[in-house]
Amino acid sequence: MTQIHVHAQPGDVAPAVLLPGDPNRARHIAQTYLDGAREYTSHRQLLGFTGTYRGVPVSVQTTGMGCPSAAIVAEELARLGARTLIRVGTLGGATPRVAPADLVIATAAVPNDGTTRQLLGGAPYAPAADFDVVHAAVAAARTLEVPHHVGLVMTEDAFYASTPEHARTWASRGVLGFEMEASAIFLVAAMHGIRAGCLTACSNDIGDPQLVAPDVLAGGVDRMVRVALEAVVTLHGADSVTDRAAGPMSG
């Protein structure tokens, strides 16, 4: 049956799904990078598309902004059969060493949001990316020679609440930047026993209220998406090998 928000049927969604927040970015990814992309949902402007990249089935599904929407979408994708969720979005840099348009590959997310708190009943928890997704993304970034950083991000609800002082405090604790969906996606994926990751392009330094120039950010987004797609190809290949190794045993 179709889901309440992601109006799709089992089989519409590929095992691997890229998760941009912006519906326009979802459409751009589908039209630019995927072969044979078809739209399977536009309900609530949560645009979703499925196609192939280098022969591997891939979906692109809009999450909207923030953890409440992202958690709903991740939950419904898991119910529809998705097995790998990779957020592809932007973040504000917590430290000047994360340059504009740099790629940040999250290993975990500090959950400074209300959605994970409610899902966990307030219990302490460390939402983390799946190791295989991180490993595949780092390998892809190195192969493609994409400048990147690997480490912690912080997920927050209030976009305009962050200050330079707040950013530098958390940078001193290892946080590379701030975004709005990763912690919920990591948690929901863990609750369903599926993989999740988060790749983001740096849109600005928290100390600078201006976003980077559109062409610079577009270049960063392009590199991020290509890294994510190459990671999906790597994961698909590894899964295929595992499936063959665990094939039916002779009696």
UniProtKB/TrEMBL annotation:
Its EC number is 2.4.2.3. One of its GO terms (cellular component) is cytosol. InterPro entries: Nucleoside_phosphorylase_CS (IPR018016), Nucleoside_phosphorylase_d (IPR000845), Nucleoside_phosphorylase_sf (IPR035994). Keywords: Glycosyltransferase, Transferase. PROSITE patterns: PNP_UDP_1 (PS01232). This is Uridine phosphorylase. Belongs to the PNP/UDP phosphorylase family. It comes from the Bacteria. Residues 16-209 form the Nucleoside phosphorylase domain. GO terms for biological process: nucleoside catabolic process. SUPFAM superfamilies: Purine and uridine phosphorylases (SSF53167). GO terms for molecular function: uridine phosphorylase activity. It catalyses: uridine + phosphate = alpha-D-ribose 1-phosphate + uracil.
